[in-house]
From TrEMBL:
This is Fibrinogen C-terminal domain-containing protein. GO terms for cellular component: extracellular space. It comes from Macrostomum lignano. PROSITE patterns: FIBRINOGEN_C_2. It comes from the Eukaryota. PANTHER family: FIBRINOGEN/TENASCIN/ANGIOPOEITIN, PROTEIN SCABROUS.
């Protein structure tokens, strides 16, 4: 079994070409737990966790505590944990010793000997030597029941750093959800990130393997020593490739691992081999490339490693290089790639090779000189493996298109945070990601690349980058949430979060208390007043007209009742006319949260009225004067956001139509606790 490959557990006796493939009598590794979706409930009781449940090892699955004890009773197993993040990057942790005690000791966990893939920390150590807890059987050492508190079951201490049996969260709620709730692996993902998939496999330990094969541990060690010596002898034969039946042999043609070899060379040097050999910085030579592909196209595979040590690949089914007489013209097609990787080599197809002293590209400059390298440039490039090697300090946010480049998805034009792009400025924020709606996600090389890709989509108002996993997530404002507009400069856990240079939503009216008098005159309502958008506030009629003069905006109205329940109404079109028409209101396209009715329709098409400027159609009195307010009154109103603020003692069951009202469904004797109008 090879580490980090889950397929190792799926052993099926079959032929593979000319090879016969056999597996041992049992799978290499046995799946003991697996999460891939929310289709199976893992918030279960003690009796259920003692037994197997779920969809089987390939789906959502738990093998059962009794089986776990049976598997490890004769000796510890290895434990392998496979994790997949929401950008589809894969990670693993392994423990050299794993066992589960008997029911009489509440299936106590014993685990040690951690190792893991790049960046993965030991999040299981905290559970070592603790008993299993479910919602109805509390064996942890916390004052609460951790199983009930975090909606799962696990070997909790005073709770956990990992919780594979937690609630499954889909993408919209997996990032920056409630602390420690979800499918958690704290190091490095943090307590606010719920994984896309996790799988736990019990694998044979050294002693287990020896017993299964009928060999002593000493015999196993002797065989291992023999194999190592045989491999050493093979290497001394200096064969360029050891062939296996029916499998290709790959030849390294280019390799970059550091800046120790200069790749900014001339034509003659690129015709020949140079560098440290295939395992180091290396170029095989244009003449050899032509020779290798002259008899027919080869497959091309490109392996890439980012600065967070995540690995990616691209492959082309057809690759060939022409003769010197055609300046080694490139022919490449048939792209496929790992998750998120785009075809950055297509732009080079059918172009000749260019170096600093031999310009065969179609750009007005020499691309080789311009970008300090050599390649099959067109009007320059989307990939440049032979560019200047940059170390970590200069690899991110450097000059455009300079470096070892693969444009899709890593981008050519990274920028530092706060630099103004053509469209917007990104600024650091601590907005909760749950307050936005996910637009897209993908792997990014860095926070800079993550922000750069957002600039091309005007619908994106927030960007979140997780340096641990490489996940770049783009978000847009989610309707019905005021917090979307509030960008504050700070970090939030593992996430670096940025908002656009302008708020998603603009607050135009806000009521939170009685500290500001809203019973004002015409001139005062024309201008801004109050405590600012986060407090009691009015943006001003003149500003409302300017904001909507170029075209209708979307408004959203947020309401909080005295039991702190939240409700919203939204309109697809909202505009305010000029002063010459007394700021006439135009509003349409209602939708709302459950139970909320259209209380603004009655104001549509009417002019604004204050206590000293009566533009309503009520014949017998001025609605603003009568109801101590100012609004777009008709023959009065079904909503009155600018009415008198009432505290809890007088808000319910008071005089009809006095207060901050939204008639449907709250009626005329209920004054709301909070009210906010925002436009998008």
């Amino acid at each position: 079994c090879r580490l980090d490959l889950r397929h190792c557990r799926k052993c099926r006796n079959a032929n593979k070409g000319a090879q016969r493939v056999w597996t041992a009598g049992s799978d290499c590794c046995i799946t003991v737990q697996h999460r891939v979706s929310g289709s199976v409930d893992f918030y279960r009781g003690w009796t259920q966790y003692q037994s197997e449940f779920g969809e089987g090892p390939d789906g959502n699955y738990w093998i059962g505590l009794n089986s776990l004890h049976d598997l490890t009773a004769s000796g510890p197993r290895k434990l392998r944990i496979l994790m997949k993040a929401w950008n589809d990057s894969e990670h693993w942790a392994e423990y050299s010793s794993f066992s589960v005690g008997p029911e009489s000791d509440n299936y106590r966990l014993s685990v040690s000997g951690f190792s893991g893939s790049a960046g993965i920390g030991d999040s299981l150590a905290r559970s070592n030597d603790f008993q299993f807890t479910t919602k109805d059987a509390d064996h942890d050492v916390h004052s609460d029941n951790c199983g009930s508190r975090y909606f799962g079951a696990w070997w909790f201490a005073d709770c956990h750093n990992t919780h594979p049996n937690g609630q499954y969260r889909d993408f919209s709620s997996a990032i920056d959800g409630p602390r420690a709730q979800g499918i958690i692996w704290k190091s490095p993902f943090g307590p606010y990130y719920s994984l896309k998939e996790i799988e736990m496999l019990g694998c044979p330990g050294r002693d287990t393997a020896a017993r299964r094969g009928g060999y002593s541990a000493q015999a196993v060690e002797q065989m291992r020593a023999f194999i190592q010596e045989f491999q050493r002898l093979l290497k001394t034969l200096h064969y360029p490739c050891v062939h296996t039946i029916s499998s290709d042999c790959w030849t390294t043609v280019q390799h970059r691992v550091s800046g120790s070899v200069d790749f900014y060379r001339g034509w003659t040097q690129y015709q020949s081999e140079f560098g440290e050999g295939p395992d180091g910085n290396y170029w095989i030579g244009l003449n050899t490339l032509h020779d290798l592909t002259a008899s027919g196209p080869r497959k091309l595979r490109i392996l890439m490693k980012a600065w967070n040590d995540s690995e990616h690949w691209a492959e082309y089914s057809s690759f060939s290089v022409g003769p010197e007489s055609d300046n080694y013209r490139l022919s490449v097609s048939g792209f496929s790639g790992s998750a998120g990787i785009g075809d950055s080599l297509a732009r080079s197809n059918d172009f000749q090779f260019t170096t600093k002293d031999a310009d065969h590209d179609v750009h007005s400059d020499n691309c080789g000189s311009r970008y300090f390298g050599a390649w099959w440039f067109a009007d320059c490039h989307n990939t440049h493996p032979n560019g200047q090697y940059r170390d970590f300090s200069s690899a991110i946010g450097g000059p455009r298109a300079q470096g070892v480049i693969w444009k899709s998805p890593f981008a050519l034009n990274p920028r530092v945070a706060g630099v103004v792009s053509a469209e917007r400025t990104w600024r650091l924020s601590r907005d909760g990601l749950a307050e936005y709606e996910a637009a897209s996600s993908f792997w990014a090389r860095s926070d800079i690349s993550c922000m750069a890709t957002a600039d091309s989509d005007p619908a994106v108002q927030l960007v979140a980058f997780n340096a641990s996993s490489g996940l770049c997530a783009h978000f847009r404002c989610r309707l019905g949430l005021s917090h979307c507009r509030k960008g504050r400069n700070a970090n939030k856990g593992d996430h670096q979060v940025w908002t656009a240079g302008s708020d998603c939503w603009t607050t135009v009216q806000h009521r939170v208390s009685g500290s500001v008098d809203f019973y004002r005159n015409w001139t005062q309502y024309q201008s801004e007043f109050g405590e600012g958008p986060d407090g009691n506030y009015w943006i001003g009629l003149n500003t409302l007209h300017k904001l909507t003069a170029s075209g209708p905006r979307k408004p959203v109205i947020l309401m909080t009742t005295w039991n702190d329940s939240e409700h919203w109404a939204e309109y697809s079109s909202f505009s305010v006319g000029p002063e010459s028409d007394n700021y006439r209101l135009s509003v349409s396209g209602f939708s709302g949260s459950a139970g909320i009715g259209d209380s603004l329709a009655r104001s549509n098409g009417f002019q604004f009225t204050t206590k000293d400027a009566d533009h309503d159609v009520q014949a017998t009195y001025n609605c603003a004067e009568r109801f101590v307010s100012a609004w777009w009154f008709s023959n009065c109103f079904d909503t009155n956001p600018n009415g008198e603020y009432k505290d809890s003692a007088s808000a319910i069951g008071g005089a009809p139509n006095l207060g901050i009202l939204w008639k449907y469904p709250f009626d005329r004797e209920y004054s709301l606790k909070k009210f906010e109008m925002l436009i998008f």
